[in-house]
Amino acid sequence: MCGIVGFTGRQQAAPILLDGLEKLEYRGYDSAGIAVAQEGAAGYGGAARGAQSGSRQTAGAARPEAQGERPEGSGAGSTEPSIEIVKAKGRLKVLREMTDDGRSVPGTCGIGHTRWATHGEPSVVNSHPHYAKNKRVAVVHNGIIENYQEIRDRLTKEGFSFLSETDTESVAHLLDKYYAGNPIEAISKVMFRVRGSYALGILFADRPGEIYAVRKDSPLIVGRSDQGNFIASDVPAILKYTRDVCFIPNLEIVKLTAAEIHFYNVDQEEVEETFSAINWDTEAAEKGGFAHFMLKEIYEQPKAVRDTVSPRISEGHVNLEELGMSREELAKVSRIQMVACGSAYHVCMTAKYMVEQTARVPVDVDLASEFRYRNPVMEKDTLVVVVSQSGETADSLAALREAKKLGYRVLGIVNVVGSSIAREADSVFYTWAGPEISVATTKAYSTQLAAVYLLAIGLGRAKGVIGEAAEKEMTAELLRLPEKIERILEEKERIQWFANKFSHSKDIFFIGRGLDYASSLEGSLKLKEISYIHSEAYAAGELKHGTISLIEDGILVVGVATQKSLFEKLISNMVEVKSRGAYVLGVTSYGNYSMEDVANYTIYVPKTMECFAASLTVVPLQLLAYYVALGKGLDVDKPRNLAKSVTVE
Ligand code: AGP
Fold first, then answer.
1. Does ligand 1 lie within 6 Å of residue 645's CB atom?
2. Which end of the chain is more exposed for a tag (fewer CB within 10 A), N or C?
3. What is the reported pTM?
4. What is the 3-state secondary structure (H, E, C) of 192-260?
5. Known catalytic residues?
6. Cβ of 599 below 6 Å from ligand 1
7. What digits encode the pLDDT tens for the residues 545-584?
């Protein structure tokens, strides 16, 4: 997830762009850049100022030799219209320092970008805007171009040369290839050739004063004011200047000048769109209108899972090339040792059940803080998998280093591109959840589950445990998970109503069997870390070995039951606790209506393949935790004593 902003009007654009990017840093903050149209005769005010972590150049008539140098002949006094681009690695303040808060970049029309890396680690050359060499087109992008590699390969054969590792640069070259003076036509042609999600802000150097934008599945809005017109990924970027916005419909192209805004469909026909008044305050706007980042991120799960899964599935097959492991190497994996902390550890617990069923590879799971000190004994062909959202968790990083010291291959499943675990693992499989702000993980957790499913299917195929038909059935179901998560989110009021009844509980227990036990662990952690209510999760078969002595009248026990072969056993465990006074909430798949014979209240999730059930049952458990904590009036996004990334032991 990245942040885009654009402005064309009667004021200097760069300071406005930087203001907007600052409000979008929650969408990504590993690097930033701006591109501002230079009218040409007005000359070029900026002196080339390279900085360790930044670069400044003009993409114009002359060809910049690389993104980071300023070409000769297009500097001060240039008569040709051109585009000045300034980019910097690190937080936005680096870019601010490079441009004197934008004051040193002349021009009244520009675009800007703050990055959350997905393809290519954080660096100046990978930061946006990207542009092609032989035409003057600058692009900023939010989303994922799934077929960027084939586009890149084809354009390379046609003589285009690439500077960055990003998917976005492919779009810049495509636009360049198809631009012959008509921007709308060029953009439309590109739309027919790229797959994936995109919100694009585009400048054409020979059309100073004009911004073009287009979106598919990534958010983009247009704002209008008497100072000029804007594009932005989200409302916060422009709220300071206007509340009069239009949420661009999918697959529409927009042309902005200082005075006009025009919308076009993909067939290049002009269409009319309506504007609406935004009445959010700035803080609410940063959360997209949600009360908390946690709720916003719960609602981002369908997109996060889709972004993580669909680029790795083509024609029903899982593509694990990014692991850098051949099919033979995957087939040789004799055991998997998974290591993580907190919620990521619960992903590993789920993986144990799912991977062993799908690939028949034994999976051991360890807390990173234990693994790092237990001098583990592992088979030669063990693959160590470290799961971490932040990629900076001290215990997980130490466990990775311990495994590598012992000579084992390490795969990192990580959300933050270029993080320590990502860099030090032998292979990395990125989840594309985007930045996760709330301390309690939700969307990152869901994308980690999705990553594990893909790994299991790829392993199962490499080992010949599952055939092509099974693979296609599983990948098809994986691609349906986002819409099933959306259906659960439609039920949030029911969950909120139930949660309010238990906001003042003292103890809440979660029970499950098989991978439902792993989901119970996650439900319990979500609840306790943001509501401060004591909670424990138990393998339901364990109750009779002690815990059941804690069950008293009115204590809430949440039973998770999606595994057919274990359903009846879980039901009897729920009867056991209910007969001792517990109030029982059942979480199960539609169709298991016998749950209502024992549960006081039941929440259903859509049916799915049992091995994917954790991706669905976790959603009501997240919402339960959220609404219980909300009912207690707690700071849901920043719970006491906790940090988003535990970078100390
Ligand atoms: C989850 O809600 C918690 N915030 C915490 O358990 C977290 O999962 C754990 O600290 C691991 O973090 P990581 O995924 O960044 O390594």
1. yes
2. C
3. 0.80
4. CCCCEEEEEEEEECCCCCCEEEEEEECCCEEEEECCEEEEECCHHHCCCCCCEEEECCCCCEEEECCCC
5. 2, 644
6. no
7. 988 999 999 999 999 999 999 999 999 999 999 999 999 9
